[in-house]
Amino acid sequence: MEIVKWKQKGVLASMLVMSLMLTACSGESASDTESDIADTESKTEDVKLVLNWFPKSQHGGVYSAVEENTFEENGLNVDVEPGGPQVSPVQIVAAGDAQFGLAHADQLLIARNQGIELVALAATMQGSPQAFMFHEGEDIQDFEDLNGREVFVQPGITYWDFLKNQYDLSDAAELGYNGQHVNFIDNKKSVTQAFVTSEPFFMEQENVPVETLLVSESGYDPYNVVLFVTKDYLESNKETVEQFVDSYVKGWGSYEETADTINEVIIAENPNIELEALNFETETQHDYVYGKDAAEHGIGYMTEERWDTLKNQLLDIGLLEEDFETSDIFTTEFLPEQE
Q1: Are residues 289 and 248 in the same domain?
Q2: Is the Cβ–Cβ distance between 190 and 184 less than 8 Å?
Q3: Judging by DSSP bridges, how do beta strands 191-195 and 210-214 pair with one another?
Q4: Is 6 a member of any domain?
Q5: CB burial class (10 A; 0-12, 13-18, 19+) of residue 151?
Q6: Does the structure show a pLDDT above 80 at 219?
Q7: What whole-number distance in Å separates Cα of residue 144 and Cα of residue 169?
Q8: What confidence score (pLDDT) does residue 338 get?
Q9: Does any domain span residue 192?
Q10: Do both 59 and 174 map to the same domain?
Q11: In terms of domains, do 242 and 314 share one?
């Protein structure tokens, strides 16, 4: 009996030892898991992107990358700040209040002229959808035909300065553009600035037939919705920039196929825009994002020749005071290789 009792004690002792070992191992496993989670969280970097306008289809790739966790997979937690008429992405990024921004190429060049060193990383749109809109049937074939008409245009907008320098528009009556189209609709002879990706849709809703003349037909065709950072941030955070650009381009690649879903997300962020208008913009901007040079070289592609042309145009009209190396203003180093 004593032997049997001893065996039972031995079994109990063995079980106790094994239990303690399992508990210890379990504790180590839980600790390791918590440590791994902590390591993952610590590797997720917080950055901010400020948009050039309220959320629209021109930001579809951004919201695609957020919604599909593409930024997160690249170790980034991205806070998207909407733009607007009183928001300057250039100033916000220059002040360090956001790491990444979106602006048009001419805005980045003018900022450089003001001593703000910014670097373009990717061109969302390969050209400019900016245009002048006029009533259908009006005899407007070229920019000289704006003479003798009221032209609603934002004061100081760069392409208007270029056109006035390039063409004799001394007889055009320049009126301030405020985003409303009532006066344009009432005056059949008038012309207004517009984006071919949006205003024609609203005119169709008002049963006002219109035509457009693209600003790019004048030769002034800056990259639009350009992703940028400061030169200092780029030099100190190349890995973060590479991860952001990779996510950004992938987001735009995905948006081409998932726009219907992502547009619902954009509507939630900007309830002031109708889904039909958003879908119109998505359709009409397609060639600007995925066509032209992007069709051959990939989303975001930029060339020194295009930047050179734009820089020289701004020098010619006095919006740039000094020349500088074009290669300083942009880089394609972080764009994914075209497959």
Answers
A1: yes
A2: yes
A3: unpaired
A4: no
A5: buried
A6: yes
A7: 6
A8: 74
A9: yes
A10: no
A11: yes
